[in-house]
Design a protein that fits this description.
Strand order of the largest sheet: 2-1-3-4-5
Distance between the termini: 15 Å
Order of helices and strands: EHHEHEHEEH
Helix content: 25-40%
Mean pLDDT: 93
Low-confidence stretches: none
Number of strands: 5
Strand content: 15-25%
Number of domains: 1
């Protein structure tokens, strides 16, 4: 099983950016924890981060061509306004799980809206680094549930 984890704009600044909201873990540390859980679950996880909206869309298009099994995405601020990324995600034929370290519903009003909400399988937010781990478990379970002969 191949899982793609996408991280968007400014998320390369985890560990430096607003530790009250995002904690002190760096993106490299988050990637390592997700990949370690992936190994434990028997799945390969590729991690990708960009601050460029077009590059994010291109990576999603590539995921479609590769027929990845699931996508986890923390698009950062793009979550709230990027219809380009939303449309790229809508092309995928696999489960997409939206991820946020902070509880976006307990923050500024503009963060309460996700333009991805209607097309993703689900969203995990507010659990810090564990949001990523919970999302990976949900993605793996969702893919396995959709395959005949698997629980």
């Amino acid at each position: 099983m191949q899982i793609l984890m996408l991280n968007g704009v400014n998320l390369n600044m985890f560990g430096k950016r607003d530790p009250a909201q995002y904690g002190t873990a760096t993106l490299a540390q988050i990637d390592a924890r997700v990949q370690a859980l992936g190994q434990e679950l028997g799945v390969a996880v590729e991690c990708f981060q960009t601050n460029f909206e077009g590059a994010m869309c291109e990576r999603i298009h590539q995921a479609h061509a590769e027929a990845v099994d699931a996508v986890l995405i923390n698009a950062g601020a793009w979550t709230h306004y990027s219809y380009a990324i939303r449309d790229a995600l809508a092309i995928l034929h696999c489960p997409v799980i939206e991820v946020h370290m902070s509880n976006i519903h307990a923050r500024e009003p503009f963060r309460h809206v996700s333009v991805f909400a209607e097309i993703v399988r689900g969203s995990v937010c507010g659990f810090g680094v564990d949001s990523y781990l919970l999302a990976l478990r949900a993605a793996v379970a969702g893919v396995q549930a959709g395959r005949p002969g698997q629980a």
